[in-house]
Amino acid sequence: xxxxTYVERGRFALLEKPIPTLKDSHxxxxxxxxxxxxxxxxxxxxxxxxxxxxxxTVGHEMVGIVEQVGTDVHSVKPGDRVTVNVETFCxxxxxxxxxxxxxxxxxxxxxxxxCRIDGGQAEYVRVPHADQGLNRIPExxxxxxxxxxxxxxxxxxxxxxxxxxxxxxxxxxxxxxxTGICTLLCARLKHPQRIIVCEKSAERAxxxxxxxxxxxxxxxxxCKTYVQANSAHGGADVVIxxxxxxxxxxxxxxxxxxxxIVTVVALYDRPQVLPLPDMYGKNLTFKTGGVDxxxxxxxxxxxxxxxxxxTPLITHRFPLSEIExxxxxxxxRLDGVIKVAVIGKLG
Length: 347
Description:
Layout: E1 2-8, E2 11-16, E3 28-36, H1 39-45, E4 61-69, E5 81-84, E6 87-88, H2 94-97, E7 110-111, E8 124-127, H3 130-133, E9 134-136, H4 143-146, H5 152-162, E10 170-174, H6 178-188, E11 194-198, H7 202-211, E12 216-218, H8 220-229, E13 236-241, H9 248-254, E14 256-264, H10 276-279, E15 285-288, H11 296-304, E16 314-319, H12 323-331, E17 339-343
Parallel strand pairs: 10-11, 10-13, 11-12, 13-14, 14-15, 16-17
Antiparallel strand pairs: 1-2, 3-4, 3-8, 3-17, 4-5, 5-9, 6-7
Helix pairs in contact: 5-6
InterPro entries: ADH-like_C, ADH-like_N, ADH_Zn_CS, GroES-like_sf, NAD(P)-bd_dom_sf
Organism: Caecibacteroides pullorum
Protein name: Alcohol dehydrogenase catalytic domain-containing protein
């Protein structure tokens, strides 16, 4: 089968590999019908994910059809259309039982697919702990509608949930990349009084204004002044930092009102400074870390009901055989790209 592979730092390649086989009774084999490229894949390519294993097939955003299941898999069966969770989790350890599935104690727990074990930018993928990692796609929901459920949409849903958004709140989202837009879609479900999105790209700002006209869009240069002028208490009640740029962590806490919640979703390339003397007295609550992707069934229900629609994010489509071109477009932000869909093995 074709599989896009992490060869070495700075180099991915489309290789021929054997179709995966089940290694455990809790595994499932999924034929990947549609996948995508995540910024985290680029972090692997650039050497920013030390735990990534050279030789693995990359990719963790995908949907597909179950081809085979182990004897202890009960939630899905061959022929089911499914989303694949970015995280592998056992469902039984301390962290899983408390909903912190990103910290699953299983050897393959957390972000494994496309990082530490073979992922889904391929024709087939083996999914460990399939009862937890796969969710059946409801009738009437297309592959494109479901494509981002297991990763960036789960991230946005998680970020909105842990940020404790209330109806009277002003919410600031920093970054309008794919994850930022998914966070926006999920924050809207909480019906806050106001959502402000900070984005430096003129193309992405236009995208926001076209598709989400009720949202206020601001540039990084004017963000702090704008938020202070358009919030009730001198800053945002909730700030969700999704950009991960060199200066966005500081911007996040500077734009927050005293006693606000600052949720950091971004994955940074380098350490950030926490200047406690500068923020003394703001009494901020910081929430950080990787997504706990345990809400996928709920997200699929919301998609089926028409409450979430991420299909506008898919601006480009490529077959798996042209994934090098897809990466070139996505990595260099060419032609107004937001997200690409990589068409896999359809039959």
